[in-house]
Amino acid sequence: MKVLMLDDHPLVLTALRQMLETLDPGIHVGAAETPAQAKALLAGDDAPFDLLLLDLRLGDDVDGFDVLAELRQDHPELPVAIVSATERLADVVRAVDMGAMGFVPKRSSMAELTEALSMVLSGGVYIPPVLLELISRLQGRGDLGDTTITAARAQLAAADAAEAAARAGQGAPAVPQPTVAAAVAPAVAPLAALDGLLPPRRPDGLDVLGLTPRQTEVLALLLKGLPNKLIARELNLSVETVKDHVAAVLRALNVSSRTQAVLAVSRVLQQRASGA
């Protein structure tokens, strides 16, 4: 397995390389501190990379989202996972909307990194459960704006406390709420080692969604961030047929956008993994 890391901090690159090599001695790691270096490595004659780990903060003169967009355009089949210190929930949603198949905060543990890599390389999408919970609840209240992870936790905890107090004042029985503290707690069951893990055509676990085989194939490519035109080319279908399949997938997931579909599938896959 070959993994390319793009981060402008040499110490971070060294730490990530050590973590990856500890996970599996068979992982070959390439490191780039600039987009130009990453492009050169991706254009090399060696075997293609299986995964790119991208930091969104690459210096004052580089916009990580511009880099992500260019990578998705030039290498649409290359899975990209974000490994970043950003605290903005809107950045998480934007990255997923642009085709990132994972978002891993830099403060994550090795267990979380292992889970993220396993999920992404198996064709799924990984977003930490706590971020899924925060995004889901805040999107229901309106635009995420510049809300940070820390601020969101405090905001929702205060809202839960106020709702509980109001119910108590009215004499109504308390209704358990999905508090932020509870969202932090779930532990993901240990997954198998990454040795020999290859990206299949579609991630395991999508059968529970009740989609047809063709719709599941479309969803798997949608999770990669491919636009309808590329999905049509990959599956040898017309663009109009792909649009129909995408619409059916969104209806099945009870969502209205690709980004919401990705978040919903991420939640399903993680629940499936934790219950295994």
From TrEMBL:
- Modified positions (4-aspartylphosphate) in chain numbering: 55
Q: Which domain of life is it from?
A: Bacteria
Which residues are in the HTH luxR-type domain? 204-269
* Alphabetical UniProt keywords: DNA-binding, Phosphoprotein
Record bears the keyword Phosphoprotein: yes
Keyword DNA-binding belongs to the record:
yes
Which CDD domains has this protein been placed in?
Answer: LuxR_C_like
What sequence ranges are listed for the domain Response regulatory? 2-121
The record's annotation in PROSITE patterns points to: HTH_LUXR_2 (PS50043), RESPONSE_REGULATORY (PS50110)
What protein is this chain from? Answer: Response regulator transcription factor
UniProt organism field: Pseudaquabacterium inlustre
Taxonomy of the source species: Bacteria, Pseudomonadati, Pseudomonadota, Betaproteobacteria, Burkholderiales
